[in-house]
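quick one, 83 residues, struct below
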Amino acid sequence: MFEGPNYPQPLDESLFGEWLENGRSTIIPHSYLLIIWDELDTAYLPVYTNDRDELQQFPRLGQAPDHQLLVAAYDLYSETRVV
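---
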């Protein structure tokens, strides 16, 4: 997933699946999985939140010269992409 010239590197589908499961299985369940690209580590990172307003906390990939950029956000239960 995230293959193509608009993304810095692909993300393994099995890792994405693990992130979804981890977000749903925490003691305090989360609602959203944010996938963040970290420029310094050159890696994708999962961020979990219940607050949809947190989606605005991170600048989006391709729109800002920051070191942590929002690539996508997913609803953990429907698995639909919300950003």
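The first strand starts at residue 32 and ends at 38.
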